[in-house]
Design a protein that fits this description.
Oligomer: single chain
Helix content: over 70%
Order of helices and strands: HHHHHHHHHH
Structural class: mainly alpha
Number of helices: 10
Strand content: under 5%
Distance between the termini: 27 Å
């Protein structure tokens, strides 16, 4: 022990370390409570919106029967009848080679997530993201959702590999992709990078929804306190 250091000095250092750990835990808990799950809800909503737009684009070129079958299966899923909805969605995915096949595949993955079978849902999303024949808009939506579910545990390079193309494209998903990277930075305790990414989101108002704007502002406020330590 350092002879020049009193027991009180050692105690102060210990309490400082404990305080720092508590602050980091608070930051991570804030992220999990207000960041990750809020974003997943947004991704699900946007996926549904993309699905709706995709259906409209194909409406006049595809048989109405596929639309009816999809609506029927979706209603079953909403009602919680997973087995029946899965059977109908799987039939659509097997027999249709257009947009309804892709929509059905996404809904099958959604069904597994709702049944808390995250591993199976992630597996199906990974297959979908790699399928170059799938509708590009839906592939992008699936990519964001996949990155969201991998965010807590997957290696950082795996998550970045998913979202970097969306950021480079500067399309509709750019801000959500950056938020995923910001949350990843928080997970890795790189609060300076996280703050920078949230600021970039605020600086891109063209693709910025009100909910994300408020969340980014809140996260920056919390990150300012962390960076100042």
């Amino acid at each position: 022990m350092d002879k020049n250091k009193t027991p009180f000095d050692s105690t102060d250092v210990l309490f400082q370390e404990i305080d720092d750990e508590l602050k980091q835990e608070k930051m991570l808990n804030f992220w999990k409570k207000y960041g990750l799950y809020a974003m997943i809800i947004m991704v699900v909503s946007l996926t549904l919106a993309v699905s709706y737009e995709s259906i409209l684009a194909w409406k006049n070129r595809k048989a109405q029967s596929w639309s009816n079958a999809y609506a029927y299966a979706f209603n079953l899923q909403v009602q919680g009848d997973f087995d029946k909805s899965l059977a109908v969605f799987q039939d659509i995915a097997d027999k249709n080679n257009g947009i309804f096949r892709d929509l059905a595949r996404l809904q099958i993955a959604n069904g597994y997530f709702e049944q808390d079978n995250v591993a199976k849902g992630v597996e199906l999303l990974q297959e979908f993201v790699k399928d170059s024949d799938a509708d590009e808009n839906l592939r992008q939506a699936a990519t964001v959702k996949l990155a969201s579910y991998l965010l807590e545990q997957a290696p950082a390079n795996q998550i970045n590999a998913l979202v970097e193309p969306l950021i480079s494209a500067q399309g509709a998903w750019v801000n959500i992709a950056k938020e995923i990277q910001a949350m990843l930075a928080i997970r890795e305790k790189d609060f300076v990078k996280a703050k920078q990414l949230y600021q970039e989101i605020l600086d891109n108002p063209d693709n910025l929804q009100d909910g994300m704007k408020i969340r980014a502002q809140d996260m920056i406020a919390v990150l300012n306190e962390e960076v100042a330590q």
